[in-house]
Amino acid sequence: MFLLCILPSVYIVYMPYWCMSLTMATDTRKRVALVTGGGSGIGRATAVRFAELGYSCVVADIDEPSAKETLGMLQTPGLAVQVDVTMATSVEAMVTAAVQHLGRIDCAFNCAGIESAPAKTADQQEDEFDRVMGVNAKGVWLCLKYEIAQMLQQEPVVSDPAKWADKPDVCRFRGARGSIVNASSLAGLVPLAYTSPYCASKFAVLGLTKTAAVEYAKDGIRVNAVCPGPVATPMADRVLELSPPDLRAKQDPKLFPVGRFAAPEEVAEAVCWLCSDACPFTTGEHLKISGGI
Ligand code: NAD
């Protein structure tokens, strides 16, 4: 059923359209979603959800085998790309590969991220600050830069044009060249002790999100962010393992209003909603997904 085309660092899976459900075959149009950090945790769950909704997916990650593994879980045509979001040439190549193979980028979820080693500010190391800011802040900035440049070249697509025909202004806002969601964190809204590089990077993601949103609103490009609380992923496991006892105690799920960590699929659902035509007037926002924290 699958035809696997192997190109340098780019893997494509084509699934014949007759394999897809009738709902998908009659979907309004084929859309393309790109997910960085798609090889694990929240990024993987979001790629899977995009595919369930009928999007073709570009799964991008620095860890190539994990990106290919995610690609193998998808039911729609897709592409796995190795990318290091800290490098402009790598991010540009990711966008080029996506457009070459899938035609355009309707949605992008900039999810690649790393945690910082737990230490109070005076004990943090300069190279650790640079490393975390490099992936979490510069990485999001580079993705925005190249994704937006691509989206500006795309024809806007108006969903439900007949419904909005007598409201040209609304129709213009609904005309989407693209929608981008960035992964911030609750730590991008409130301080989280022992994580100053991570906190700084996630506050930065909100600044980048809101700036790009106002710059490109009139071009039909929406930019939003999600701020998840604790989510059960490999990153959360690593953080818990390395945290000092007082920090680990604060992560006890019993202390959270809902009494548990989020599943990555619960964040994925919110990301796909923000990307969708369900919220065409929502841009420059951050959505807290915290189970009430
Ligand atoms: P994860 O570690 O499970 O996945 C992160 C992915 O990013 C990995 O596949 C990794 O290979 C990839 N990655 C790392 N550096 C990269 C680089 N330079 N270029 C490309 N890819 C790279 O983590 P997760 O928990 O799924 O986190 C995803 C995002 O959500 C991160 O930005 C994280 O900060 C954020 N977040 C996570 C939580 C949580 O509790 N897990 C909470 C709030 C926000």
From TrEMBL:
InterPro entries: NAD(P)-bd_dom_sf, Sc_DH/Rdtase_CS, SDR_fam. The keyword Manganese does not apply. It comes from the Eukaryota. One of its GO terms (molecular function) is oxidoreductase activity. Keywords: Oxidoreductase. Coiled coil: none annotated. Gene3D superfamilies: NAD(P)-binding Rossmann-like Domain (3.40.50.720). The keyword Oxidoreductase applies. It holds the Pfam family adh_short. Belongs to the short-chain dehydrogenases/reductases (SDR) family. PANTHER family: DEHYDROGENASES, SHORT CHAIN, SHORT-CHAIN DEHYDROGENASE_REDUCTASE FAMILY, PUTATIVE (AFU_ORTHOLOGUE AFUA_5G14340)-RELATED. This is Uncharacterized protein LOC109467322.
